[in-house]
């Protein structure tokens, strides 16, 4: 009989995590109210256990009553927590509460930050420098090429490419981020266990393996029209700026750009033909003060050039020894080092920028003689 690896059980949700989930589920308590209560009481547990008379001073009667009932036995709540436990049992799945050190600092700048984030993949990408790349779902062939090429260059320079997993420009941006340094973040408008649109299922799986997939919505949430404009605020807040590649007048991408301006982020736009409807939104942004860009260098120059972290000195010798003097792919190197390919991408990029490695076509790396 073949040996089997031992199964490592995931840790069940803690009492604190369950309190965060309870607070998120209280009827009538939206994110703005929840944040106000947290500022008043400090923790979700303190909010849920606050004296009834104090809650009545701060909330409408229906809200206060709903909070007072939140700790009562609830079979639906228990089933919901069991579903989250089961989801978290798969490696590389994470539940980040608003007070978690790994929770993205940019999202805390929002007036209505999500109480919980469901993350698949590399949560470290949420803490590093990023740029959002957005645009039309019905993009032109040139727009798709621009999105992918810009995203690849930005990823190589150390920026995670953030987008919304929609068809068109979003999908092209994610592909570019993956073909660069494997650094892309998909902010979805469904639960993290649902993929929409279905045509991007393979892309979503690749993002989950190499990049990061993020949702503020509870597991099981199906596509709802109101969720997609709402998630745009997360795309803006996660990034240093927003690049709009193609957008018609009234496009949802313009909402993302306006939200970015409200947060003090930079907005960039690629100009297009005056005869194309897909240029109207970008031209409107340019008239309103967005930065015109013709290459990724225009963005990197404004942001201060390459922003990738320095190589980890403890890792450099091992990686250079693993690659030797023959070209090798990231997958081969990952196997030699006993690490995941996605984990390796950041250090490969850092060594490339330091002039120690050269990336050849096809994702092959070789040492630079010297």
TrEMBL record:
Q: Which domain of life is it from?
A: Bacteria
- Enumerate the InterPro entries for this protein: DprA, DprA_WH, DrpA_SLOG, RuvA_2-like, WH-like_DNA-bd_sf
In this protein, which residues make up the domain named Smf/DprA SLOG?
95-303
Pfam (any one): DNA_processg_A
Q: Name one GO biological process term.
A: DNA-mediated transformation
Residues covered by the DprA winged helix domain: 309-363
Spell out the Gene3D superfamilies in the cross-references.
3.40.50.450, Winged helix-like DNA-binding domain superfamily/Winged helix DNA-binding domain
- Family in the record: Belongs to the DprA/Smf family.
Protein's UniProt name: DNA processing protein
